[in-house]
Specification:
308 residues; mainly alpha; 15 helices; 73% helix
Length: 308
Amino acid sequence: MATAATSRRLPASERLRRSLGNGRVSAILILLPPALILFTLFVILPLGESGYYSFFNWNGYGAPGDFVGLENYQRIAGHSIFHKAVGNTVKIVAVSLLIQMPLALALALLIFRKTPTNAVFRLIFFVPYILAEVAAGLIWSFVFDGNYGITASVAQSLGMDSLFILADRDWAFVAVMTVIVWKYFGFHMMIYIAALQSVPEDLIEAGRIEGAKRLQIVRYVQIPHIKPAIIVSAFFAIIGALQVFDVIIPLTNGGPSNQTHTIVTYLYTFGLTRLNIGFGSAVGVILFVAAITVAVFYQRFFMKGDKA
């Protein structure tokens, strides 16, 4: 205590000298500028340029000159396909929170203990997440193919007509959500496994001695202790749902009839591929604002306990 009080009485120059001697300020001066430069070049400047280009009708060639103000935003607001893309993104968020995460938690509860058999199952369930998104989309496009895929073989073996799920307006997005759950649940499962392995075994054993059954231990002992992991997992699920792109493009490319677009595939299809960079930039600005809003809201209401 006396040392801390003495250091507070020292002149600013002396405190700075001691800090430099300890290496803290030196580390900041050495490491912070490169990080700020990279963040500015690859985050701040692209965001600023997107906001600027969104006010132009620009095809990406030359300098933007056709200023249209808020017209791009007005076109987006009145575009029914954008409304569909937003609805599909919300559906992915709901499926991620209500199906993908509970499935991951259930599997984690079954295989979180360190045994050779559980290690094998963890690897099997985690492989889809390791697989590249484009590869996953191509694999499942073959599975759902009505002519020669696995779906066609099952339909033929049951004496049914061929099923073209990815060409069906009602079922195509169900197939997309199925692939998304399959692709990413392993990531959340590994988060839960790591958290469950940190739960003190003494608490679980005490619950058993008190007569608690398996589900009661899960509900009253394990889940409360891994609540921070669940909160982080939900945050990743929501932000990831806002960015879904690589799986959908090889799987459906937004079809049939633009029924499986998300916000990002909508940006790609109606902005980049059609050389309407100003329009696409406006969609990107909207997506950025939505992601920041979700992040701030989530931090404010669900991550209060992490501030300590």
